[in-house]
Design brief:
The complex is a heterotrimer of chains A (311), B (432) and C (293).
Chain A (H helix, E strand, L loop, with lengths): L1 H5 L5 H6 L1 H33 L17 H8 L3 H30 L6 H8 L1 H4 L2 H11 L6 H8 L11 H29 L3 H10 L3 H30 L2 H6 L11 H10 L4 H36 L1
Chain B lengths: L1 H33 L5 E7 L5 H16 L2 E7 L1 H13 L7 E5 L3 H4 L12 H4 L4 H6 L11 E6 L2 E5 H7 L7 H11 L13 H14 L16 H15 L13 H9 L5 E4 L2 H6 L11 E4 L12 E7 L6 H11 L2 H11 L2 E2 L2 H10 L2 H15 L10 H16 L5 H19 L4
Helix pairs in contact in B: 2-13, 9-10, 9-17, 14-15, 15-16, 17-18
Chain C lengths: L3 H5 L10 H32 L3 H4 L14 H8 L3 H32 L5 H11 L4 H15 L5 H25 L3 H9 L4 H12 L1 H17 L2 H6 L8 H6 L2 E2 L2 E2 L1 H21 L1 H14 L1
Antiparallel strand pairs in C: 1-2
Helix pairs in contact in C: 2-14, 4-14, 5-8, 5-11, 6-8, 8-11, 8-15, 9-10, 11-14, 11-15
The chains are: A mainly alpha (311), B alpha+beta (432), C mainly alpha (293).
């Protein structure tokens, strides 16, 4: 094995003078994991990408090349525009709720409070619960006949809310379920980030008599920016992949009122039996999330570049 | 463009025919040895409740005793079953020899199911309801893709106690559906429950569309579901929910399960449901209305049409055991098997002779129900089985839901859907 | 609101002297209690639902507490559904995935952290992008591949797929931990004559134990929770997992909310166990991935 060449005793110099075996060792160690991922995912990815330019369903004995028509069809069809709009609303609203809410809660909780340790333990639960359970559970909570939430509203003398049957509320409902699951995750990430902030600038600000609000904006938030950006990246990736919760709560309905890109892809594949268009939707989702990520990744560099310029 | 498409379809079709013929001759060549004692076939079968596993165990062991052929099987419920068969067909899988299937989805599978015309003789097929055979047949080539096991047509189930107390009769017309429903709607109690989501919403729209005198496509496959009849149907459907408010307000989230549950839990006084519901409504373990429900024919408008579709079994075109699979198919649709299926689940027999036998043996309300249902089946309809119609279905489902939830007017929703469906049918070659 | 953030980031709590500070403290406790309540209540409701009789599920008005506590829903899921199979498959698939991921991810992460090899950046980028593909895009071709090689509806097929999909995150996580190790330790091991593999197993692995544990816990839970892959790749109780079983309660004749809640509670049990016994690793894993990513 390649490793045996590495284990020549007491000859650290040889390691530098003979780099080739080390490369070999490196590739050999990395290969199994990479090979498994390539075999399992790269071929299916390539296949579905190529087939997104063909007619791909069960009816055609052969699959004619269509060029970009699977993609252009999406934009002339009746449902994709609304789905895209929903995806934007869902992504932006979820991000705002989760990041702002998560940051607010984290900041409030970051001082030493009694009961904070068990609270943090409990906050770990929602992000780790299966999305399928979350979806079905919220569908039950939001049920307009037997659900708890409307029952409580009515008991309080408020009107019952048509959570899942009203087009506008349906999207709100899935945003609530998703935010319930993921806001605690961001609280935990931000808490960890806040603990890593150096004390000196904060103490200096306190000495200068800066208000807490200003300290937060001027010192805490800039120091937290890397954590916030990474947290947003993680969430954006997952928000563009959200399926279980929406499928089990509303199936994207009523109509397309809470339809998201992955739900649309699922419907196209398993209801329309139209794998070509389903693949096209999936790749649109991928490209969109990459674009958003690139934008997000670019913003800190842009702003830091400008502040450097100003300095 | 269209001529290129049609030539490709023609070539594709003839290639499929050639392949089918080759497979057929191969089968006859080695058919004798195929059904020997140690033959084993795999089946993907339907389940819909806790009694199905025992039922299929009984059927397959009886089949084994008679033929020596072992049937190993997996059970899935209706929706996951369809999704699974879509992926299996896409992979041209040989894993299963026999698939459980349904008229509603059969269109997507025509190229993947073995034509059964060679395996069943015409005289035997003549005993099945003609509508059942017709809608399991590929209109493009006349090949039968699946053998019907039990008919799915809907019945108007209603609460005898509530109707008597209010002094009303089950609705015979759309107008009566509204007036009766209004009389029975008050304080958490609703006159009617309907499904309003997904494929069930399309099924309900289809019934209203036919009852209004409309249809999906014309003879040349031009889209006609946005005709005045279609708009009238969807408007009526929406108004039951949004205008007359005789259904629970959240029916746009209901599929079949919530639809049935609305009746069995006693909140809704009437429901349109499948034959199997007769068994579950009457089962005190599953239903609070087991002693108080009764049946009536479906209400009518311009026509009295409702759907006549069926569950069936098909043979995987890529199966290596087609003869043994065909024997299993025949075994599951013998008159005895259909009588047994009725006894187990109230599944309506797909053979006319068996239906008559079952009607003759039943009594009272059950007999009336069965013979009403026979009439519904004989006049029953189904949406067209042309290439691309699965995509049309998804588009229509969304349009129907858009109208039901007041996001679009029925006219606008159907017009938009019709434009998109026309393009889909052109792309698939069904429409030129 | 004022005074809150500043104190929040101070190391030591300041004894409240002014009313404003007291109000701030009260407000923080209110937020703490509310956050915890909102996070826990939906799951508590699931538990309550699972302990009701079937009749009471559809009681109007909704009762907060069950009039009689019963385990009938739990009995139902094991007697009338293949729940034992689902649970067993979920355990086997999740544990096997953890084992495979750990064995494969550690050497790969080590190479990424310590070797300057051409193509490393490409691999990292590809790994990240792979995480972003909607699974549905892979479903049909993956199904075809597995169908061709006989891995459909098998535990092995499910394990391989899950391992491949969880590997990027596990590698990422372990890499972050390895990068934090002082290189001197490894170099001294090298001087002692240890080969790369031995060094990895006997020196590096123990030192990044928390990282490996964190990756194992996350891999287990994400595998345990997955619905879409299992739904696509399985069709019988030979390989169907709990989330697939969960969707089986949505039957043609009604959503069985009672048994479904019971199954849902069973699904949450490992989450609770890990949160209780391994919360440190869980937080480490989640934070390491994010803060150092």
């Amino acid at each position: 094995m390649a490793t045996s060449q590495m284990s020549r005793p007491r000859a650290p110099v040889a390691r530098r003078s003979r780099p080739a075996p080390k490369w070999l060792t490196g590739y050999a160690l990395a290969a199994p994991a990479i090979l498994l991922m390539l075999v399992i995912f790269l071929y299916p990815l390539g296949h579905s990408f190529v087939m997104s330019f063909f007619r791909w369903d069960l009816n055609s004995a052969e699959s004619p090349f269509l060029g970009l028509s699977n993609y252009t069809d999406l934009f002339t069809g009746t449902s994709f525009g609304q789905t895209l709009r929903n995806q934007v609303i869902f992504t932006v609203a979820s991000l705002v709720i989760e990041v702002v809410g998560g940051m607010a809660i984290a900041v409030l909780l970051s001082s030493k409070l009694r009961g904070l340790r068990p609270a943090r333990t409990l906050l770990l639960i929602p992000p780790m619960v299966a999305p399928a359970v979350v979806g079905l559970n919220f569908r039950w909570l939001f049920n307009e006949q037997y659900g708890l939430i409307d029952a409580v509203l009515v008991r309080l003398g408020l009107p019952a809310i048509p959570w899942l049957s009203d087009p506008a509320w349906a999207l709100v409902s899935v945003i609530i379920a998703s935010a319930w699951q993921n806001t605690p995750l961001l609280v935990l990430l931000f808490l960890a980030g806040l603990q890593a902030i150096p004390r000196e600038p904060l103490e200096a600000a306190a000495v200068d008599g800066a208000s807490a609000w200003r300290t937060f904006w001027a010192i805490v938030l800039p120091l937290m920016r890397p954590v916030v950006v990474i947290a947003m990246m993680i969430r954006i990736i997952d928000l563009f992949r959200t399926f279980d919760v929406v499928w089990l709560m509303t199936q994207g309905g009523p109509g397309n009122a809470s339809n998201l890109l992955t739900v649309e892809a699922y419907k196209l594949a398993f209801q329309s039996v139209d794998f070509g268009h389903a693949a096209a939707v999936s790749y649109v989702a991928l490209v969109l999330s990459l674009l958003v990520l690139a934008l997000l990744y670019g913003i800190p560099r842009l702003t830091s570049g400008r502040s450097a310029w100003q300095a | 463009m269209s001529s290129a498409l049609s030539r490709r379809r023609f070539l594709g079709g003839s290639m499929a025919l050639a392949a089918g013929a080759a497979a057929g001759s191969f089968l006859t060549a080695c058919g004798g040895g195929d059904s020997g004692g140690d033959t084993e076939i795999n089946a993907l079968l339907i389940t819909g409740g806790d009694r199905y596993p025992a039922y299929w165990e009984k059927v397959t062991s009886a089949f084994k005793a008679q033929t020596g052929i072992t049937v190993t099987y997996d059970l899935l419920q209706f929706t996951p079953l369809t999704s699974k068969e879509i992926t299996l067909a896409a992979a041209r899988s040989t894993q299963y020899d026999v698939y459980s299937t349904h008229t509603a989805q059969i269109g997507a599978f025509f190229p993947h199911f073995e034509p059964l015309n060679n395996h069943f003789d015409a005289a035997d097929l003549a005993d099945f309801f003609p509508v059942a055979i017709q809608y399991m047949t590929n209109p493009a080539n006349g090949e039968l893709a699946a053998i019907p096991r039990n008919m799915d047509s809907r019945t108007q189930y209603y609460r005898r106690d509530l109707y008597e107390a209010a002094g009303v009769q089950p609705a015979k017309t759309w107008e009566e559906l509204v007036t009766v429903g209004q009389q029975l709607t008050s304080g958490g109690q609703f006159g009617l429950v309907l499904p309003g989501q997904g494929d069930p919403a399309q099924r309900q729209f289809a019934d209203f569309l036919w009852q209004a005198g409309g249809d999906w496509l014309d003879q040349n496959n031009n889209v006609t579901f946005n005709s005045p009849a279609g708009v009238e149907a969807l408007t009526f459907y929406r108004d039951l929910i949004q205008e007359h408010r005789i259904t629970p307000s959240d029916v746009v989230t209901y599929q079949w399960n919530e639809n049935s549950a609305g009746f069995t839990n006693g909140t809704c006084a009437a429901v349109f449901d499948w034959p199997g519901a007769y068994a579950s409504f009457g089962d005190p373990a599953l239903s609070t209305v087991s002693d108080t429900f009764a049946t009536a024919p479906m209400p009518s408008h311009a026509t009295s049409a409702s759907c006549a579709i069926s569950h069936g079994l098909a043979i995987n075109k890529y199966s290596r055991n087609k003869d043994a699979a065909a024997q299993f198919l025949k075994f599951t649709v013998t008159p005895d098997a259909l009588v047994d299926q009725y006894a187990e689940f109230k599944n309506y027999p797909s053979r006319m002779s068996t239906a008559d036998q079952v009607i003759g043996q039943a009594q009272g309300m059950e007999q009336q129900w069965l013979s009403d249902l026979r009439t519904t089946i004989e006049n029953g309809k189904e949406w067209p089985k042309v290439p691309g119609f699965d995509k049309v279905s998804t588009v229509v489902q969304t349009a129907v839901q858009n109208a039901l939830s007041d996001q679009m007017s029925p006219q606008a929703a159907l017009d938009a859907a019709a434009a998109e469906c026309t393009r889909i049918l052109q792309q698939s070659g069904a429409l030129r | 609101m004022a005074g809150v953030t500043l104190e929040a980031t101070r190391p030591a709590p300041v004894r409240p002297r002014r009313t404003g500070a007291t109000v701030g403290l009260v407000a923080r406790y209110v937020v703490l209690v509310l956050t915890v309540l909102v996070s826990i209540f939906p799951l508590a409701w699931l538990l309550i639902t699972s302990l009701r009789t079937s009749d009471e599920l559809f009681a109007v008005p909704v009762r907060l507490l069950p009039s009689t506590v019963t385990l009938e829903q739990y009995v139902t899921v094991f007697t009338e559904y293949e729940m034992a199979d689902y649970v067993w498959n979920s355990i086997v698939v999740s544990l096997a995935t953890v084992a495979l991921v750990t064995v494969l991810a550690l050497p790969c992460a080590y190479v990424l952290a310590r070797f300057r090899l051409p193509g490393v950046k490409v691999v990292i980028t590809v790994l990240l992008i792979m995480r972003m593909i909607p699974v549905i895009a892979l479903a049909i071709p993956l199904f075809s591949v597995f169908s061709g090689i006989g891995l459909l509806d098998t535990v092995l097929g499910l394990v391989l797929t899950h391992a491949a999909s969880k590997l990027p995150v596990a590698i990422w996580l372990m890499m972050a931990f390895i990068q934090d190790l002082p290189k001197e330790i490894e170099e001294s091991a090298e001087i002692d004559g240890a080969g790369v593999l031995r060094k990895l197993v006997f020196v590096v692995a123990p030192l990044i134990g928390p990282g490996i544990a964190a990756s194992a816990v996350l891999t287990f839970l994400f595998t345990w929770n997955d619905l879409l892959l299992a739904l696509t790749l399985t069709s019988s109780e030979a390989a169907q997992t709990l989330p697939v079983g969960l969707t089986n309660f949505v039957t043609q004749f009604g959503i069985d909310w009672g048994p479904m809640s019971a199954a849902g509670v069973l699904m949450v049990v490992p989450t609770l166990l890990f949160v209780w016994f391994a919360q440190g690793y869980l937080v480490k894993g989640l934070v390491a991935g994010a803060v150092r990513g």
